[in-house]
Amino acid sequence: MKTILVTGGAGYIGSLTTIELLIANYEVVVLDNLSNSSPEALRRVQNISGEELAFYKADLLDRPALESIFKAHKFDAVIHFAGLKAVGESVQEPVRYYHNNVTGSLTLFSVMAEYEVRNIVFSSSATVYGDPDSVPVNEEASLRPTNPYGWTKLMIEQILRDQHVADPDWNAILLRYFNPVGAHPSGELGESPRGAPNNLMPYLAQVAVGRRPNLQIYGNDYDTPDGTGVRDYIHVSDLAKGHLAALRRLKQGGGVEAFNLGTGRGYSVMEMVKAFEKASGKEIPYNVVARRSGDIATSFADPTKAHRDLNWEAEKGLDEMCVDLWRWQSKYPEGLQ
Question: 72: domain range?
Fold first, then answer.
């Protein structure tokens, strides 16, 4: 596999993965509608990697635009990141989420079939597990999302499974991410959401750098050691490398396989606050507010299958996650412009 289409490649995880692809000598074509990202991210990707990429500003819902890209390039595989991704927002705007994420993916898969591109790595999510019966969560756990965002991920997984049944030449790796955090170690590229961040760590970093007055902690009455939600946080660079491992796995065929990408360790919100205070040397003021709809108490991965079958494991610990995030946020307080 040489030429890879990366949908959503200007986003947080997409841009870090594109760096790894370019360093590994893949030819990369990025498609992104820039609704929650910046072309500056791709300029920095090229600066960091020392390699060139092709970029198309396009939306997956625009089939003619997709077809023109597939006509211009012969792709060996697709890495599919593009999609709306905020749990809370998905509860408030479910129709928008289903239309964008599911319909956009259907359009992509249809064009892939038309141009005989049958290998895909899909950016799924641990939200497909919902509120798990037990932790750590392995790939055989029940799939029962608690919010529309999670349901869009599970629906897309099922579409790919059904497509493989219809055409056994299709191969898909479903990567179920836990909670990506951190930034590129250079400090030149990290998460840069438009508007208020929807996830804990970028919000926390913006508080530390003075962009926001305080952190809101959603609930401190969960059944966890300190009452705040527990999650598996994974360094985004480790996550990016997981996609290269998935491409190597795709070369072997194998149909449709799901893999957890996480560290196998859970940290509470309060533990993350303390770790970031240590990394940044800043005190993080916070307020406890009501739980968010769709949130759960505890979720962390059993990454054994990825270790065994992808020859991948997370290497960076909590300190590196926080130090790299602070390096990025303190260097670029306003993020990407």
Answer: 3-181+234-264+300-315
